[in-house]
């Protein structure tokens, strides 16, 4: 069974430690544990980086050996054509995931490049939404969706 890549972008290593009114108090380590539990037998590569280059390299890794991608690209969502180009090359399902509802926020958070290639977008479910994202990616894999 090939792994699901769960990739997290800049500043998400601070999850649970700032702006709890928007992002809650769950830490990224707790999110990882939640995802591993939800994934069951399915192997997962759960990662976070503040570097755009690293995030793109991990998408390439997923292209070579991953079954699905769940990505919270954080600020790179709204800035990175390079990330969009990398994700476009992935053949399996991609879930763009945001803890907060980006559409309820300032207009700078409304235009996502990643959405142009994502299979689906999940936003506003809070940190526990990652668990639902793991369930959703299994559904998309089973239905052979891209
Ligand atoms: O809601 C999300 O998951 C976001 O992708 C988080 C990003 C933000 O740029 C997106 O618009 C929405 C990152 C927010 C800044 O990083 C923080 C991390 C932990 C706690 C507070 C902020």
The CATH superfamily is identified as: Dehydroquinase, class II
Number of domains: 1
Secondary structure category: alpha/beta
How much of the sequence is in beta strands?
A: 15-25%
What is the helix fraction of residues, given as a range?
A: 25-40%
Low-confidence stretches: none
**Rg value:** 14 Å
Order of helices and strands: EHHEHEHEEH
* Physical arrangement of strands within the biggest beta sheet: 2-1-3-4-5
Instruction: Kindly provide the name of the CATH class.
Output: Alpha Beta
CATH third-level topology:
Rossmann fold
Architecture blueprint of SSEs:
Blueprint: E1 4-8, H1 20-23, H2 28-39, E2 44-48, H3 52-65, E3 68-72, H4 81-88, E4 94-98, E5 120-123, H5 129-142
Parallel strand pairs: 1-2, 1-3, 3-4, 4-5
Helix pairs in contact: 2-5, 3-4
Describe the structure.
The chain is α/β, with parallel strands linked by helices and 146 residues long. The chain has a single domain, classed as Rossmann fold (3-Layer(aba) Sandwich). The protein is built from 5 helices and 5 strands, in the order E-H-H-E-H-E-H-E-E-H. The protein has a 5-stranded parallel β-sheet, sandwiched between helices. Strand 3, helix 4 and strand 4 form a beta-alpha-beta unit. Helix 2 runs parallel beside helix 5 and helix 3 runs parallel beside helix 4. It is globular and about 40 Å long. 29% of the residues are buried. The mean pLDDT is 97. The structure holds ligand CA2.
């Amino acid at each position: 069974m090939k792994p699901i890549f769960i990739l997290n972008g800049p500043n998400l290593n601070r999850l649970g430690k700032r702006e709890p009114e928007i992002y809650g108090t769950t830490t990224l380590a707790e999110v990882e544990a939640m995802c591993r539990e939800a994934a069951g037998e399915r192997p997962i590569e759960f990662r976070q980086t503040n570097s755009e280059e690293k995030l793109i390299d991990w998408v390439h890794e997923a292209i070579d050996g991953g079954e699905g991608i769940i990505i919270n690209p954080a600020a790179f969502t709204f800035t990175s054509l390079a990330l969009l180009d990398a994700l476009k090359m992935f053949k399996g399902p991609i879930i763009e995931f945001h803890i907060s509802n980006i559409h309820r926020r300032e207009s700078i958070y409304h235009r996502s490049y990643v959405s142009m290639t994502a299979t689906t977008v999940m936003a506003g479910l809070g940190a526990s939404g990652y668990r639902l994202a793991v369930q959703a990616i299994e559904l998309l894999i089973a239905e052979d969706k891209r």
